[in-house]
């Protein structure tokens, strides 16, 4: 009697996302959005300050960091290089600032993308997926 060969399906581990924003409503909304993606991505942590973001990035080693520009008076863009020095995450700047110089500075400092907070939920999710598949 011959047995059928059934392929073994392996699921990729979820994309681990660290959210860095000082606004609780933004953290809650983006967390709900990411968690709605089920097993493909999850929020690994939240950080409302630069110091907390640096500590969490080192300890949880996220795949993606979604970083706000304005962290309650701290410049989120100043964090980019320090975050990259502490982990291998890709950084997506998520901001309400639309000035081209903000985008240019973020990309120059090492962010892989800049997404407006006015963008659709789908655009943010697509940016996270795209950033997680960028070859090193």
TrEMBL record:
Keywords of this entry: DNA-binding, Phosphoprotein
PROSITE patterns membership: RESPONSE_REGULATORY
Domain of life: Bacteria
Residues bearing PTM 4-aspartylphosphate: 68
Listed Gene3D superfamilies: 3.40.50.2300
Pfam family, one: Response_reg
SUPFAM superfamilies in the record: CheY-like
Domain Response regulatory: 16-132
Protein's name in the database: Response regulator transcription factor
Native organism: Aromatoleum evansii
């Amino acid at each position: 009697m011959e047995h059928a060969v059934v392929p073994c399906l392996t699921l990729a581990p979820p994309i681990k996302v660290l959210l860095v924003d000082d606004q609780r409503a933004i953290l809650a909304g983006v967390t709900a959005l990411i968690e709605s993606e089920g097993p493909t991505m999850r929020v690994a942590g939240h950080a409302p300050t630069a110091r907390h973001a640096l500590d969490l990035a080192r300890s949880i080693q996220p795949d993606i960091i979604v970083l706000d520009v304005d962290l309650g008076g701290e410049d989120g863009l100043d964090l980019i290089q320090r975050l990259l020095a502490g982990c291998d995450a890709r950084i997506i700047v998520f901001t309400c600032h639309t000035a081209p110089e903000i985008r240019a500075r973020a990309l120059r400092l090492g962010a892989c993308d800049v997404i407006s907070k006015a963008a659709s939920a789908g655009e943010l999710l697509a940016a996270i997926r795209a950033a997680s598949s960028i070859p090193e």
